[in-house]
Design goal:
single chain; 218 residues; alpha+beta; five-stranded mixed sheet; two-stranded antiparallel ribbon; globular
Amino acid sequence: MFDRGIRFRFGLRFSLHSYCNFNPHSFFLMRANILFCVLSSAIALSLSAKPVPENLGNGLDKLVTNNLIQQGKITAAPLLPQSSTATKSTKKTATRSNAQATTTTTTQSFATYKAMIAKQAASYAWQALTDATTGKYLVEIMPNGRVPVTTLQSSLQTKFPLLGVTATDTNYIGHGVIEGYVSIDDVPAIAQTAGVGSVILQLRPIHRVGAVTEFGVN
């Protein structure tokens, strides 16, 4: 039993040594393959990342989209999903039919898309609360609860010097909230920062007042 263990261990060492002698560049090839896989994964993630994050609220996504269009970073209109007529397939032994709907996509001209986004962005910009001096937008940064609010605030202010925090509540809805003025250029990166759940644009309250005599006495 002891001899067998020794033979096994030395046999294993001999096999590995023989393999390395047979292929002296195997170690370097292995490192090259690992590096290639890491780089490929990083490139795939960067390509799949959307220029406009999906966790922007109250029209902030429209402002970001319009800003990226003006900067030339968005140069094509997105595909529009369109459902086609459903087709039904039946079987002789089945008592009910299964409806299957197919979805196709249609394209729209970039000029049309650009004009639509510009109109929507102008509407939200008019409603938004902004700093009169800098033009920065007031937003609420909602943490996702995975990073302490104070830690997240410190990290954001370090990464984004233009972020002007005006208030912080560590107990809001169980995960806290950070309110502050942000540059529209920083919004996509802020929204994708670890610990951020969403970024919500703050809008001016709309007061609807009826006629002077509506609730009075003539």
